[in-house]
DNA sequence: CGACAGACTTAGAACACAATAT
DNA sequence: ATATTGTGTTCTAAGTCTGTCG
């Protein structure tokens, strides 16, 4: 049901995607591309470009506090018998215990991975005893953390204030750095605390132990002549380096995927802000190229080369549907998700005719964060024909675009416009959609509230285009249920009123007097009123439902060129 | 080229806190 | 005053994309 609604909204949007923008201007003069041939200067500029700072000074990361053993009254039980755990084993047990009310702990993979890693932390003796997770009882541990959270919530105003001040002190000490003479806020100045890995979707590694980060894991990046951050007493940094071509202040390798985690600046910092500005400039530049690029990929649908055809169809999807590029993923390392280039035959269904349209493509796959993308969309005939061709003689698990990689696609895009990559289309189409929608929805004479509603609706249109969804919380389910109960009650009232109306009508027919006539009228009005109320309630429910699964934050934060919003504010 | 590491952006969940309804 | 709902912030996972190396 929700999918159907999303679909309806998306269908309206897809049309918007077709709206032609501003007449194509010629290539931007003086763009880097044109300088490329002039060799040395460009090379120099490029190198210059890579330098991110001249001075960088900071305090290093703030480490997660050491493990605090459980108080004596809190015990772990194995097979019904209390058992005192070694500190290491106990710490990992608390990671699991505090998650007891989370869905994760019901998942077989999570449990298996946790138990496996937990056993590695146990002493030989513990390992000898603890052989089955089913016999483990963490309920006391769980209760301890629940109580602790409740106690924290119940603190007095003063105590809360004190905690807040302490956090602020920490922020002041570790949360800022000096970059080229300016004090800049750091985004994440704390190392990630140890815990159980919470992968999204069907992640094969969920439940694995995420190791505690120690200074010996951490590489510090700062300028050579700055005050080098002090490692915590008794510890050393893994390395101190001075690389001014990168933005990070500290880094360590995480123990689940062996990938690198970074301490970086806050988005409001100059460096991050400039990058965001550049991103929107690139998207804006695409405006002048997009018509030509579109006619180019349309022409390529008929190319002799399979590779070119696949690229052209993929690009059409990326442009029209705002799909992500879709890099290859190592399987077994993460959840099975795809993007455009990694779509498989099983994700696509072709309908010669559906919903009154010809050449309908049905896409159904899990994208980033295992969010489902479901869309039925009419496509141009050559696209449809090409898809038939790409799917011919392939198994469901085979790649749809077997001759295409994100690298080759981006290489092609780079040739069409300097700085163009697949994700630029998402930024471009998101921003242009906001602009178009704002224009279509806002009226100068509207109230402020109505204008804000228009803005939010435009924002929602973008979120739907980009498939930004959120899980409906349990609180939402409850409030939805309340609403449904109300609707049900109203329905019964309507049925009752209808029955009474029928009775009154029969009465009036039999008696034919004025009194029975006025009763009849009254009943009629009552029914009408109740029906109206019912209709309003179901509209509310629909609205709530639609809103609840759309997440506006991500597009607001990453995709909408702020200049569009600012211009709109000034205008209205 | 293709695999891989590295760096950076984008993402939803969880949490904290404020606004509003009851 | 308290419960409920909405909103902003924090956290960190999961993407994109580039550069390097064999």
TrEMBL record:
Coiled-coil zones: 146-173, 473-547
Keywords: Biological rhythms, Coiled coil, DNA-binding, Isomerase, Topoisomerase
Domain of life: Eukaryota
Domain spans labelled DNA topoisomerase I eukaryotic-type: 196-572
Reaction catalyzed: ATP-independent breakage of single-stranded DNA, followed by passage and rejoining
EC number: 5.6.2.1
CDD domains: Topo_IB_C (cd00659), Topoisomer_IB_N_htopoI_like (cd03488)
First-level EC class: isomerase
Annotated region described as Disordered, given as residue ranges: 22-44
Residues at the catalytic site: 559
One record GO biological process: DNA topological change
InterPro entries in the record: DNA_brk_join_enz, DNA_topo_DNA_db_N_dom1, DNA_topo_DNA_db_N_dom2, TopoI, TopoI_C_dom, TopoI_cat_a-hlx-sub_euk, TopoI_cat_a/b-sub_euk, TopoI_cat_euk
Recorded GO MF terms: DNA binding; DNA topoisomerase type I (single strand cut, ATP-independent) activity
Compartments, as annotated in UniProt: Nucleus, Nucleolus
GO CC, one annotated term: mitochondrial nucleoid
Biological role: Releases the supercoiling and torsional tension of DNA introduced during the DNA replication and transcription by transiently cleaving and rejoining one strand of the DNA duplex. Introduces a single-strand break via transesterification at the specific target site 5'-[CT]CCTTp site in duplex DNA. The scissile phosphodiester is attacked by the catalytic tyrosine of the enzyme, resulting in the formation of a DNA-(3'-phosphotyrosyl)-enzyme intermediate and the expulsion of a 5'-OH DNA strand. The free DNA strand then undergoes passage around the unbroken strand thus removing DNA supercoils.
PANTHER family in the cross-refs: DNA TOPOISOMERASE I (PTHR10290), DNA TOPOISOMERASE I, MITOCHONDRIAL (PTHR10290:SF1)
Subunit structure of this chain's protein: Monomer. Interacts with ERCC6. Interacts with TPRN; TPRN interacts with a number of DNA damage response proteins, is recruited to sites of DNA damage and may play a role in DNA damage repair.
Family classification: Belongs to the type IB topoisomerase family.
Protein name (database record): DNA topoisomerase I
Organism: Piliocolobus tephrosceles
């Amino acid at each position: 049901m929700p999918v159907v609604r999303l679909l309806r909204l998306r269908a309206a949007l897809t049309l918007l995607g077709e709206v032609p923008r501003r007449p194509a201007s010629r290539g931007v003069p003086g763009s880097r591309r044109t300088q490329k041939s002039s060799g040395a200067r460009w090379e120099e500029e490029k190198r210059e470009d890579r330098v991110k700072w001249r001075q960088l000074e900071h305090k290093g990361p703030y480490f997660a506090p050491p493990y605090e053993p459980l108080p004596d009254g809190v015990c772990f039980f194995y097979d019904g018998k209390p058992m005192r755990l070694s500190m290491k084993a106990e710490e990992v047990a608390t990671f699991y215990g505090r998650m007891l009310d989370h869905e994760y702990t019901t998942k077989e993979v999570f449990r298996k991975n946790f138990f496996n890693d937990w056993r590695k932390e146990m002493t030989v003796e513990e390992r000898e005893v603890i052989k089955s997770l089913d016999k483990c009882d963490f309920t006391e541990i769980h209760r301890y953390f629940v109580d602790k959270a409740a106690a924290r919530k119940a603190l007095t105003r003063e105590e809360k204030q004190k905690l807040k001040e302490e956090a602020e002190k920490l922020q002041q000490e570790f949360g800022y750095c000096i970059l080229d003479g300016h004090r800049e806020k750091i985004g994440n100045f704390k190392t990630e605390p140890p815990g159980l890995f919470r992968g999204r979707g069907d992640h094969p590694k969920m439940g694995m132990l995420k190791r505690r980060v120690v200074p010996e894991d951490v590489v510090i990046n700062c300028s050579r002549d700055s005050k080098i951050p002090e490692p915590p007493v008794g510890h050393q940094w893994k390395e101190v380096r001075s690389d001014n071509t990168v933005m990070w202040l500290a880094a360590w390798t995480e123990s689940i995927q062996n990938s690198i985690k970074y301490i970086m600046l806050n988005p409001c910092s100059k460096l991050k802000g400039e990058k965001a500005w550049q991103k929107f400039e690139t998207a804006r530049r695409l405006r002048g190229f997009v018509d030509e690029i579109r006619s180019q990929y349309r022409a390529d649908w008929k190319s002799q080369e399979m590779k070119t055809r696949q690229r052209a169809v993929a690009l059409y999807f990326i442009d029209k549907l705002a799909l992500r590029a879709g890099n290859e993923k190592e399987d077994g390392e993460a959840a099975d998700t795809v993007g455009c280039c990694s779509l498989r035959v099983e994700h696509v269904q072709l309908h010669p005719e559906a919903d009154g349209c010809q050449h309908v493509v049905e896409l159904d796959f899990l994208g980033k964060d295992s969010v489902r993308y479901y869309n039925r969309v009419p496509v141009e005939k050559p696209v449809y024909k090409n898809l038939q061709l790409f799917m011919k003689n392939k198994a469901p698990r085979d790649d749809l675009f077997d001759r295409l990689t994100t690298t080759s696609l981006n290489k092609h895009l780079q040739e069409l416009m300097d700085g163009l990559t697949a994700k630029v289309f998402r930024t471009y189409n998101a921003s242009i959609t906001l602009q178009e929608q704002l224009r279509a929805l806002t009226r100068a004479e509207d109230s402020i509230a109505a204008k804000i509603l228009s803005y939010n609706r435009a924002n929602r249109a973008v979120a739907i285009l980009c498939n930004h969804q959120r899980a409906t919380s349990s609180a939402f389910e409850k409030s939805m249920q309340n609403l449904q109960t109300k609707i049900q009650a109203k329905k019964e009232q309507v049925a009752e009123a209808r029955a009474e109306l029928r009775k009154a009508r029969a009465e009036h027919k039999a008696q034919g007097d004025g009194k029975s006539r006025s009763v009849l009228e009254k009943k009629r009005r009552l029914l009408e009123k109740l029906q109206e109320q019912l209709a309003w309630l179901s509209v509310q429910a629909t609205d709530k439902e639609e809103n609840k699964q759309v997440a506006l934050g991500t597009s607001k934060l990453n995709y909408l060129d702020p200049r569009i919003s600012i211009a709109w504010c000034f205008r209205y």
